[in-house]
């Protein structure tokens, strides 16, 4: 199974990182649609796409406005956008307000369901996360592998069982430990807390993502700190592709 990190930054893009999107190119699934969403059409191997939104903050949805040409040209035949009702309403009412963006791409907006059957015998489920306005975390279980994607959130033991034992955990890590005082205020997470969560949940690999743009660089959160707690930790980079 291939997974591509198309955008690994938070809040706004930088010279190194666009904002959030993770793509499963062979199964036609994307998590979030940040500024990196323009990279999807050239990498997607299906002619349909299911986008699962964590929430409706701009750095996770702005890329939906980039999809008019792929849909009008027929390169991609259908895009289904899944999310909470309030998030879908925000996208349709505000992001695609005629004063801001006069042409609404022909998306199929669908209220999030409890679970989904996905390609290759997988099941996709979700869990609520702690973030201003709320957010959703996602997990996919296939017969021989599993994946979880969680952003934006403050680390919370309430979802530990949801991610327990996944082969790959993708988790936001907006702040370094020396800025951890901002986690509760902003609804984000810091390095040590995420690594401890991965260790306690007994996951296979941890990929840190959604970094504060003020801490841009190859090691924005102190990877050695994370590895000291959970050795199988890595910093996700834009355009990194992994097999799992």
Automatic annotation (TrEMBL):
It comes from the Bacteria. Keywords: Hydrolase. It is an enzyme of class 3 (hydrolase). Residues 29-211 form the Metallo-beta-lactamase domain. It holds the Pfam family Lactamase_B_2. The gene is rbn_1. The keyword Transmembrane helix does not apply. GO terms for molecular function: 3'-tRNA processing endoribonuclease activity. The keyword Transmembrane does not apply. It comes from Symmachiella dynata. Its EC number is 3.1.-.-. This is Ribonuclease BN.
């Amino acid at each position: 199974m291939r997974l591509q990190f198309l955008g690994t930054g938070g809040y706004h893009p930088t010279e190194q990182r666009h904002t959030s999107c993770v793509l499963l190119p062979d199964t036609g699934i994307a998590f979030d649609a940040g500024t990196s969403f323009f990279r999807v059409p050239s990498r997607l191997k299906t002619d349909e796409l299911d986008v699962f939104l964590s929430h409706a903050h701009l750095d996770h949805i702005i890329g939906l406005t980039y999809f008019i040409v792929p849909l009008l040209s027929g390169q991609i035949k259908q895009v289904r956008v899944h999310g909470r009702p309030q998030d879908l309403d925000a996208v349709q009412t505000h992001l695609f307000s005629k004063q801001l963006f006069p042409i609404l791409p022909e998306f199929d907006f669908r209220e999030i369901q409890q679970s989904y059957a996905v390609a290759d015998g997988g099941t996709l489920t979700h869990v609520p996360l702690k973030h201003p306005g709320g957010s959703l975390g996602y997990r996919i279980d296939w017969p021989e592998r599993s994946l979880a994607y969680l952003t934006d959130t403050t680390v919370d033991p309430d979802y530990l069982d949801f991610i327990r034992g996944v082969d790959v955990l993708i988790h936001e890590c907006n702040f370094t430990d020396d800025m951890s005082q901002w986690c509760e205020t902003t609804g984000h997470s810091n390095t040590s807390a995420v690594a401890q969560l991965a260790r306690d949940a007994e996951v296979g690999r941890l990929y840190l993502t959604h970094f504060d743009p003020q801490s841009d660089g190859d090691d924005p959160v102190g990877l050695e700190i994370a590895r000291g707690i959970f050795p199988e930790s890595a910093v996700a980079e834009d355009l990194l592709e992994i097999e799992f």
